[in-house]
Amino acid sequence: MKKQSWPVSTSCAVWVWASWAGVAWAQAPVAAPAASAPASAPEIQDVEISGQRQSDTEQRRRSTASKIVIGREDIERFGSTSLGDILKRLPGVTVQGGSQVRMRGLGGGYTQILIDGERVQAGLSLDSLDPEQVERIEILRAPTAETGARAIAGTISIITRENRRRRMNDLKLTLGHEGDAWQPRAAWSREDQWGGMDYNLSLIWAAPDSASDSLLHTVNTDPDPSLGTDRQERIHTDASSRVLHARARLQWRGQEGEQFTLTPILGWIPSENTSSSHMLPGATGGVPYDRSAASTDTQVNFARLNATWRRPVGPGRLEWQGSVGRSSVRSRTLRQEWLGRSVTDYDDESQTQGRSARLQWKYSVLLGEDHNLVSGLEWERERRTEERTSLENGVPASTDFGANYQAQVNRVAGYVQDEWSLSRQWAAHAGLRGELLQTRGDSADGITRNRSEVWSPMLHLLWKPEPRSRDQVRLSLTRSYRSPDLGQLTGASWSSKGTNSPTNPDRRGNPDLRPELATGLDLAVEHYLPQGGMLSVSLFERRLSDYIRTLVTATPQADGTLRYVSQPLNQGRATTRGIEMEAKFNLRSVWANAPDTDLRFNLSLYRSRVDGVAGPDNRLDQQADGTLNIGVDHKIGSVMLGGNYGYTPGYTTRLSDNQWAVRNDRRSLDVYAQWQVRPDMRWRLSASNLLARDSESSSIVGTETATTLASTAPQWRLQLEFKL
């Protein structure tokens, strides 16, 4: 049993918070006694009442915690076909593969993604949710006690639309083309009432086929002639999949604000991937095979049921949330390798089952004008079971053959959060969250259990130099963490195909991983323009401990040989910091006679350092030096035209004393044209990746370098949206 906790006394933290909360309660306004001195004449004040919905920019300005709000205003204006298209416009946000969303240049697992307060489960990508179903998207750069502390880079919270008690029957048909592959997609949604129930149904079907070509160049400059190699392998891959997502929102409303909601979600994703490769002439040092062919059949199924019950209790509101989910991934790969006249057959099969359950209790109460207190308890369990079989010419390829491995995480959390407008110039958002994590992972060496206690105090301050000023300053001091995912905790291993080498290692999990812990500082200055635009500059820093990184090591075997194994490990301390600049406005806000054109610009610059690795380039994994986005949207009558240019510089990452990762720069150009034919019909033509730059990445371990050069192609999409 191992225990990892923050270097802060638990009892001291609780005492400080209890004292602070007690003062807050004591200062809350109370009802005046029946008998009191005669009141003086009331002071006459100007009161402004507005029945209009706040704009996205106004919601962002009024929030105490630093956040970016993308509401129906932007979603409807740009008519984006996916949530990824919306998110990649934002500062510090990158989207890879259409659905892998990351913030501040950090890799996977650092950004928390929520849909209606629930973490996104495995198999459910953001592309499975139609933008028409989304009420708003909130980007929180720093964690809050209510949304959770598993957000070192930040949180992307997606809030779906409440049932609006009106009939809606919409259909979107999309035809895409990329390279030589067609990509049809259809999305249908219906909203209506049935008896005392409001309901919203949605169904998404897609067939995203694709094809790609790549060149793998492997060079080993070892002085030993028997180890030196120089070979090139050309690879062609065809991928075909079918995606079916079904989602419903069933809502019953009772008396006095009581509300019960059920949200079932189903997904079915079968796919087939075929590849062929051949070695180019002129190879030195020998080759593991002359040519190869492989096919992989995969089927992903998942189901989830969320339930929410809200009701007024006393002066506040009580909310219960619960969810259960189950997913399965079955995959089988058949591969043949030819070397001269000899043939080697591989048969790899895996089956992964995942289960999750979550309960949450939350109580919020308004203590006075602009003073809100929220407290809650959470319980969550995730479990993953993985079984793998690997045959080489019909014989088990490893001792893991048929082994059944499990990984499990139990989490209990409690929090309290107070948001208070102290004056017309100051607002505070303070919270304390405590979490107890218990993990279990199986490996060939047995069962490993870990216990971690994480306390996360959080403080957000908002200051306006003048009460009516459009300038404001934000400051956040927070603690957050990143827990290893169940795939990393599962101790199963995969043997490499072909020749085991530094750049073609075996893969293995690590049940002994501990969560990464982070202390964070965020500072932002914002200026809001009268016509709705805004300018902002923000700084951040995160200091990490128990940083997780995947490294390759040479592992001795029972027969005295060495095999190279890739495994995630805790690597000590690291630091990342950066500056993010954003500007968005309409040209008419600076030039009265300008065309109706919206401009967007954001630039982010990052620096990071892993303490246990010598420089230069001892940065965090997958973090470039920055990102740049420039966007333009122009309206001409019923036609909207726009585009976005994005740039990410190339970078080198030193992973250890003898390991590096290299990535070339990325440049993208996306454009669109949208035509509102009539209120119930519109067309949208979009093109992404118009520059079609090849992707180049290298892995360097010791004297061996493997470089992959992959081609890309522009993607065209034509969408017809109409109301039935």
Brief write-up:
With 724 residues, the protein is mainly β. Helices cover 6% and strands 61% of the residues.
Percent of residues in helices comes to under 10%
Low-pLDDT stretches? 1-51
Task: Please give the oligomerization state of what you see.
Answer: single chain
C-alpha termini separation = 60 Å
Q: Biggest sheet, open or closed, and with what strands and sense?
A: 22 strands, antiparallel, barrel
- Using the CA coordinates, give the radius of gyration: 28 Å
Overall mean confidence score, pLDDT? 85
Characterize the overall form. globular
User: How much of the residues is beta strand, in percent?
Assistant: over 45%
Count of helical regions: 5
Q: What is the count of β-strands?
A: 41
The helix/strand class is mainly beta
Describe this entry's structure for a reader.
- It is a single chain.
- This protein is mostly beta strands.
- 6% of the residues lie in helices and 61% in strands.
- The chain has five helices and 41 strands.
- The strands form four sheets. The chain has a 22-stranded antiparallel β-barrel.
- The radius of gyration is 28 Å and the shape is globular.
- The chain starts with a strand and ends with a strand.
